[in-house]
Amino acid sequence: MAVRLSSCSLSSSTSYLAPYNLSHHGNLATRVCFSCDYVDHGRTNQSRRFALKASIVQPLNAVSLHADTVVHTPAAEHVEIPAKEGYIPFFDSDTEESTLSIIVIGASGDLARKKIFPALFALFYEDRLPENFTIIGYARTIMTSEELRNIISTTLTCRIDKRENCDEKMDQFLKRCFYHSGQYSSEEHFFELDRKLKEKEAGRQSNRLFYLAIPPNMFVDVVRCARRRASSEDGWTRVIVEKPFGRDLESSRELTRELRQYLSEDQIFRIDHHLGEELVENLLVLRFSNLVFGPLWSRNYIRNVQFIFSEDSGTEGRGRYFDNYGIIRDIMQNHLLQILALFAMETPVSLDAEDIRNEKVKVLRSMKPVKLEDVVVGQYKGCCEGDTSYPGYTDDPSVSDDSLTPTFTAATLFVNNARWDGVPFLMIAGKALQSKRAEIRVQFKHVPGNLYNKKFGTDLGQATNELVIRVQPDEAIYLKINNKVPGLGMRLDRSDLNLLFKARYPRESPDAYERLVLDAIEGERRSFIRSDELDAAWEIFTPLLKEMEKKKIAPELYTYGSSGPVGVHYLAAKHNVRYEDYC
Amino acid sequence: MATLSSSSAHCPSYAYHRLSSSSSNGQHQSVGFTSSLPQRAKISLQCLKNSHQNVVLMQDGPVATTATPLETETPFKESKGGLLSGTSLEECKDAVGFDNNENEPSVSITVVGASGDLAKKKIFPALFALYYEDCLPKVSIYFSFINPGLSFCNSNFAYKGYLRNMVSRTLTCRIDKRENCDEKMEQFLKRCFYHSGQYDSEENFAELDKKLKKHEGGRVSNRLFYLSIPPNIFIDAVKCASLSASSGNGWTRVIVEKPFGRDSESSAALTKALKNYLDEDQIFRIDHYLGKELVENLSVLRFSNLIFEPLWSRQYIRNVQLIFSEDFGTEGRGGYFDNYGIIRDIMQNHLLQILALFAMETPVSLDAEDIRNEKVKVLRSMRPLQLEDMVVGQYKSHTKGGVTYPAYTDDKTVPKDSLTPTFAAAALFIDNARWDGVPFLMKAGKALHSKRAEIRVQFRHVPGNLYNRNFGTDLDRATNELVIRVQPDEAIYLKINNKIPGLGMRLDRSNLNLHYAARYSKEIPDAYERLLLDAIEGERRLFIRSDELNAAWALFTPLLKELEEKKIIPEYYPYGSRGPVGAHYLAARYKVRWGDLNVEP
After folding, report:
1. Residue A432 near residue A313 (C-beta atoms within 8 A)
2. A163-189, pLDDT tens digit by residue?
3. Which domain of life does the UniProt lineage start with (chain A) (predicted)?
4. Any chain A CB within 8 A of the CB of B393?
5. Smallest Cβ distance to A488: which of B135, B306, B501?
């Protein structure tokens, strides 16, 4: 998610040192913090419990700051809703007492408008939000609540529009939306926000969810202010952050460290919206509730796995954020790697978030850092087709003319554990390619001693089974099998055992953001990224990224709308993989 | 299901049969059919692989006796050693390997008992379809051998009128859809001849031989006899054909249809009698189920897909179900059926053959003998059926919506007190390393609520399933299942567990689906086409060898005898119902749940 910023990075970066120091001296600050610290107490305990379960989880940062204050917490006040069990806690008996406030920081931005508010509305429409909820948009722009409502109302999606009394619902929803303008680094403004929130909460138990739809350089400021001035006193406070989570291992650790000054691990919800996609959610169900896949899921039967993510559009004038990150950081290190981890992990002890994330970390830590020779990078160039001409990446005015930022990358990775030793995992991500698709392809090995080998011609790679999980477009799962062409004689064909979601489930699937926001509200952490996962993910890619930047590796240019640099086929060939660049 | 039941209605020929056949003596044996190698045979590759004894050559060339405008119209390509690969015109031509040579071998196909239902509904349409698609050798002659009791004024002209009438009525739309069907039919009919004679008259067959020789015009002669006659005259016809009308310099083959006896003894006697006149490799015992597209595909699925390989054993498979049901009864033609019953009619042959293909080990090669060796091994590893592992039923009259459906015993051709089962369910076991303890359930019945034939493979539970909570109490409902539907609507689907899209975590069993009609627009050829072509090409894979037949009978004979001795009363079930409930209790005993009766497809 490229969050575009009208950022003033200077002001925010300077502002974050000063208030940080203040907090240690300011009485006001400690008082406020005190009250919210007991919330953290519960979380801290939980983290310890998880740590016991899985010794491999290394506590990255000792949360000593919290631990101190925790001591003072009155035990009697442990009425807060335990996040882990809280599926929809608000529907329970305490409907009357608890409230939920969702504070969208950066409410005027693209992400908020296009994704977060529509997702919130969809949840509201489906009665997934607790009865007493308030949504507050927070941004620097000066505007009224009414203006915010006008902005929001234009982006609510058609899934909802299809249904009845949408207008009515929309009105009800908009009435719950308010706007509060303020600086991201101003504790004072957040204090005002807190007052406003208290007013809405009207003395009931307060749960607060902050959604940081802002550029990463302001994360810490906002978290600091929110934490000190606007966190819940008697309920939970959670913060959803969007990528990028740093540019490399060091900056990511730094960000984590800073966030952890104000938040405990279980208050941080690092969103990777791809983990909220329907078919990614389904991946675990497929793997673990179907016997037929169980015996196949290892190096014994799987020849290679491909993770493909391609977009048919370029940066289209909005390349400034992207140019600083590149496709590896934007797609591979997070989305594709997360999916890989889900794909390759061992069976977790249970479906609990911590158990699943423990297994994912194990996969990531079994992986060697990606080597430069296992990577192909590309950048799209302009081209003309008929009357339309498509711009090259460096034609983007927000991108420097000599940018070497890759817009396409293919990489082979290996998971060095007993299950996956030697199986290449091929990742491919790119912009401005011929099609828009995201899919997982699992290619199985040849049938040993295949009786029908003669029927397949010379390339046996063409004749193996393949399982395809297509995330988009048109969600589908299909299994390519060899089959006899009906008719006389014996001609074989690869056909599909197919499950097209559209055909079987005509109802529209919820957007990934709906699922993830709901999970955050319910305290379900399964689809959010834990610090140690993030750390492990960066360890895989950071050496490569640094080497590329140091050596100024020139990307292979490919034409806008093409199938990408041909280098990918040679990389694939090196590892005996066959990559089909069309579906 | 083409059974010979129909021919009984049509067969005045019964009157002519004599049971003299088995007494034929040694001297005849010496004149038995030859299966010599044609001298000038050009060998088409795909045939070479499959047939050791008879290398068939199918080439074209002008046919002396029949008008063949065809040759000039369809220029044939050079022969290629290509694979026999499909039904399209081109592919067939390639396979057959046409070559313009005057001295081509000829193939003549003589349908003995050509006036019967089977011939009318299946054999001639299949022949025509093959002819239409140029899958038959260029020099081919089709003779109908008909008992004189059914007279066409003894003229070819009248016969052609009859045949045209008959064939055109039964020709399938697959052919009708295409162009110049009429023209093709004319050409086809020009090659059809008619010979009237007694099935047990060597003289009459000698006359046929003369006629055939005339048409063959001195070429190498290959002769295929299709016995579309009741089993009691098999031997007579085989004897006469063998002694008086077998090929002098090419191959002679005989296709026989079930029933192959009523039990081990009668089957062995039949085989012995046939072998007086024929070698094993001249006998083509047809089981048209083996010609079904998805049964053919079964081996391809198993042996060319890695993903099924690890699953195909007792370790992962909980049970296998072979289901065959018809939605109609005997409908006034129960004479043949009543003598055999559903177990002999469907189970002992069709279902058991499919079971053997399903369960066999990987053969050394795809050669007919290698496959049949593996099938025999499966059959011989099976436990003979026990009476308590069998449920038999018979349909009774049922009135629904003002329509009354007759009971089996209401059929005029069936005795009132008949105990013949029209339904049977059985549990079978293969005592080998791969399948020990896995129940193979078979179910076959007439007058049930649906018409279908399918194989269902139910897999085991996921051990330690993380999602068990989502499945409720009946974990059986949550296992994977592979379904191979042979008819109607050929399909393969794999039931998998899947998350229902949406918020929350609700699971669903959905299908990974391959629906043939959707993927393959081409109409699937009838089983008879495939089998006839295979017989012409000497491909024996889909025909049943004597030892297979013996082994199959050995499994069922003790049970059949016990049923008859003890006069086991069948459980009655209403016409159009799901069959006797006893089938469920039988299944339950082996912890199986019939997959075809679930609400979901």
Report:
1. yes
2. 667 778 888 899 999 999 999 999 999
3. Eukaryota
4. no
5. B135
What does the alpha-carbon distance between residue B75 and residue A271 come to, in Å, rounded to a whole number?
68
Residues 530-589 of B with CB under 8 A from A: 530, 533
In angstroms, the separation between the Cα of residue A181 and the nearest Cα of chain B is 32
Tell me the pLDDT tens digit for each residue of A115-158: 899 999 988 888 889 989 999 999 999 999 999 998 888 887 65
Contacts of B135 in chain A (CB under 8 A): 488
Instruction: Give, as one character, the DSSP assignment of residue B108.
Output: E
Q: pLDDT, tens digit, for every residue of A554-581?
A: 999 999 988 899 999 999 999 988 888 6
Mean pLDDT of B143-161: 65
Nearest to B108 by CA among B75, B145, B163, B83: B145
> Chain A: nearest CA to B553, how far in angstroms?
30
Least confident segment among A267-281, A347-361, A442-456, B177-191: B177-191
Position B40 pLDDT exceeds 50: no
- For the question of an ipTM over 0.85, the answer is no
B306 → closest Cβ in A350, A464, A485 = A464
Q: Which residue of A has its CA nearest to B496?
A: A290
Contact A286, A293 (CB under 8 A): yes
Test mutation, B465, B481, B492, B496, chain A, max A CBs within 10 A: B496
The one-letter code for the residue type at A439 is E
3-class SS of residue A40: helix
Taking residues B284-290, report their average pLDDT: 89
pLDDT in tens, B407-463: 999 999 999 999 999 999 999 999 999 999 999 999 999 999 999 999 999 999 888
**Encoded tokens for B3:** 């059974």
- Judged by a CB distance cut-off of 8 A, whether residue A21 touches chain B is no
Asked if B506 has any chain A CB less than 8 Å from its own CB, the reply is no
Classify B534 as helix, strand or coil. Answer: helix
Mean pLDDT on B88-98: 40
In three-state form (DSSP H/G/I as H, E/B as E, the rest C), the secondary structure along A508-529 is CCCCHHHHHHHHHHHCCCCCEE
For B515, nearest residue in chain A (alpha carbons): A497
Q: What is the pLDDT of residue B167?
A: 66
pLDDT digits over B337-360, tens only? 999 999 999 999 999 999 999 999
Mean pLDDT of chain A: 81
Q: Which of B52, B215, B350, B584 is catalytic?
A: B350
DSSP count for chain A of H helices, then E strands: 20, 18
Does the active-site annotation cover A335?
Answer: yes
Please identify among residues 484-513 of chain A the ones whose CB lies closer than 8 Å to any CB of chain B: 484-492, 495-499, 501, 504-505, 507, 509-510
CA–CA separation, A33 vs A35, rounded Å?
5
Concatenated DSSP letters for B26-42?
A: HHHHHTPPPBPPPTTPP
Task: Compute CA distances A315 → A215, A406, A433, A481, whole Å.
Answer: 18, 12, 12, 38
Residues of A in contact with B512 (CB under 8 A): 477-479, 497-499
CA distances from B377 to A114, A256, B374, B539 (A): 66, 66, 5, 21
Amino acid identity at A489: G
Residues of B within 8 A of A285 (CB-CB) are: 467, 497-499, 505, 507
Kindly report whether the peptide bond that precedes residue B570 is cis, defined as omega within 30 degrees of 0. Answer: no
Task: Go through B560-590 and write b for each residue having 16 or more CB atoms within 10 A of its CB, e for each that does not.
Answer: beebeeeeeebbbbbbbbbbbebbbebbeeb
Looking at the DSSP assignment, which residues form a beta bridge with residue B226?
B111, B255
Using CA atoms, how far apart are residues B116 and B278, in angstroms rounded to an integer? Answer: 24
The residue among A212, A191, A257, A249 whose CA lies nearest residue A106 is A212
**Each residue's pLDDT tens digit, A397-451:** 999 999 999 999 999 999 999 999 999 999 999 999 998 999 999 999 988 888 8
Question: Backbone dihedral region of A323: left (phi > 0), alpha (psi from -120 to 50 degrees) or beta?
Answer: alpha
